[in-house]
Amino acid sequence: MVFSSLIFLFLFLPIVLVLYYLTPRRFRNVTLFVVDLVFYAWGEPIFVILMLVSILVNYIAGVLLGKYRERKKLSKWILIADVVVNLGLLGFFKYAGFIGETLNLVLPFLNLPVIEVALPIGISFYTFQTMSYTIDVYRNTVKVQKNLIAFGTYVSLFPQLIAGPIVRYEDVAAQMMDRRESLAQFTEGVKVFLVGLAKKILIANEMGNLWDTIRSSGSDSGVLGAWVGIIAYTFQIYFDFSGYSDMAIGLGKMFGFEFIKNFDYPYISKSITEFWRRWHISLGTWFREYVYIPLGGNRKGLPRQILNLAVVWFLTGLWHGASWNFILWGLYFGVLLVIEKTFLLKLLKKAPAAIAHLYSLLLIVLGWVLFYFEDLGQLGEFVGRLFGADGLRMSDSVAAVVLSYIPLLIVAAVVSTPLMNTLYHKIKNNAVRLVADNAGCILSLLLCTSKLVSSAYNPFLYFKF
Predict the structure, then answer these.
(1) Count of helices and strands (H, E) across the chain
(2) CA 151/CA 154 separation, integer angstroms
(3) Which of 241, 243, 244, 257 is nearest to 188 (CA)?
(4) How far apart, in whole angstroms, are the C-alpha atoms of residue 366 and residue 382?
(5) Is 58 exposed, middle or buried (0-12, 13-18, 19+ CB in 10 A)?
């Protein structure tokens, strides 16, 4: 992964940018599509075929939906068939083993063979993107894309292909056919990309190291160490995923695309409802537009709204992975949201901001415990540790590690708030801002490169979703 990251930064990306800008404007989607396939094949050559099948199936479905738009019954069946194919492919590659294990657990007399299938990187993201396209064509909110290369480029666009954000076709339809790249947009893209890279390499990876060290120390961590560990994981998953989203948004700008913001400082939230407006915005938008609202949203009374929320959050958990802990994680937040919508949100709005913030942070951090531990036995053991089952004190070795990370924990806490961004925008002098931008970009690139060269630890957590 480290070697691949360096190749991407200093070989693949520069070559692609040169090729892209040397290509005449009307052929740039062709160049991007070829590059997208090369990029995906770099990691998983065989699954390029699967992605091409997905592209072709959804392209044909879109054309048919456009052709038979006035024949409502036929177009509905075309959409249903398309959704079944999309969810069938996603279900087989992501959930076949989980379904087999669950059926054997519930109905052991079946003794079904458990299929172990490699998970194609990014399949959850590009499947949701293709489905958004065909559903919107059916709804007549977007025009049919008859250019197969343009549609294929949308589905396979390498900046956000493997870890989001989920880009709905509606948001980039015009850009696919008529985008006007500019130096200002490119420069902004470089800056956003390097900010994301710094988040990922300099903060997320280090928080991951701290979490791994404390988690592997077992009972030696005590209560305090366990809480420090899960807080480190809380920072790791935020800076990992928001860092990758920033990199994707920045890369998109370099090629003339504008993607939606995917994170908006979620850890400053004063309720779980607010948290989910700020965390993984593209996924929340997808489920709201294509599941929650079609089910009736909040328009059919409170009991139906609670049922709709339960469905959405069960699916949100399941989307993240084929394991019961993800389903429990989704339902956990679903229950909290129902409680807030029925009465608690009103009380939180009247409560002191600090109390509401602490309430939210505590529940968010406990949620990440559910998210991390796929083994329910280990989950129970760690929850017990958080509440004193293994004593209060850390061992001297764990305490030494924690003390060495305190400065970075403080940095992570500050950077997870809008403070630095607010201070940056207080700079009114353009010359000073230019110097700050250039110095920041150069420093970020140097530090990240140095870290990549010197460390073998560089996981992307959301690649597996």
Answers:
(1) 22, 0
(2) 5
(3) 257
(4) 11
(5) buried
Of the residues 280, 320, 357, 425, only one is catalytic, namely 320
Residue with tokens 């961004």: 421
Do 206 and 408 touch, CB atoms closer than 8 A?
Answer: yes
Q: Return the ∠ at Cα 46 (arms to 40 and 50), rounded to 5°.
A: 80
Distances (CA, A) of 142 to 65, 135, 171: 11, 9, 10
- Nearest-angstrom CA–CA distance, 289 and 291: 6
* CA-to-CA dists, residue 415 to 196, 327, 426, 450, angstroms: 12, 30, 16, 21
Domain ranges of the chain: 25-179, 185-464
Catalytic residue flag (residue 320): yes
Return all residues near 236 (Cβ < 8 A) that are at least 6 apart: 204, 205, 207, 208, 211, 461
Distance CA 184, CA 386 (A): 49
Both tokens assigned to 118: 């490699």
- Per-block average pLDDT, block size 10, for the chain (465 residues)? 73 93 93 91 85 95 93 93 94 86 77 78 90 94 93 91 83 88 93 95 95 90 93 96 94 93 95 96 94 89 90 94 92 95 91 95 97 92 89 86 95 95 84 86 91 73 54
Residue written as token pair 């049922």: 307
Residue type, 356: A
